[in-house]
Amino acid sequence: MKNLLWYLLAGTRGGETRCRIIEFLQHHPSNAHSLSSALHLDYKTVRHHLAVLEKNNVIIQVNKGNYGAVYFLSEPLKEHLGIFHEIWVRFGKK
């Protein structure tokens, strides 16, 4: 999980956006629409990053396939939140 997080969050162009999504979901499980509003991001951009994070088992989706599906942090990510915070402080969070 450590190497995967470094790649997804610090090694790609969308890393900062993914970090913002993870940080928000950590405190506020949400659907894509709520995330796009709260983070002031385009809905399609949010959907793209959610798909990447879900594909890599960083987040999970409840009520999958429905418009209002809610996203939560996955258990593997919860176990490695220290790595996430290290990356976010070092490369993204200002």
Question: How would you portray this structure in words?
Answer:
The chain is mainly alpha-helical and 94 residues long. The protein has a single domain, classed as Arc Repressor Mutant, subunit A. Helix content is 64%, strand content 9%. The protein has six helices and two strands; from the N terminus they run H-H-H-H-E-E-H-H. It has a two-stranded antiparallel ribbon. A hairpin with a 7-residue loop joins strand 1 and strand 2 (70-73). Helix 3 crosses helix 4. The longest helix has 13 residues, at 15-27.
Count of separate structural domains: 1
Q: Give the number of helices.
A: 6
Low-pLDDT stretches are none
Amount of helix: 55-70%
| Proportion of strand residues | 5-15%
CATH domain class name: Mainly Alpha
Tell me the CATH architecture: Orthogonal Bundle
Distance between the termini: 24 Å
Count of extended strands: 2
> Could you name the CATH homologous superfamily?
Winged helix-like DNA-binding domain superfamily/Winged helix DNA-binding domain
Overall 3D shape: globular
Main beta sheet strand tally, sense and closure? 2 strands, antiparallel
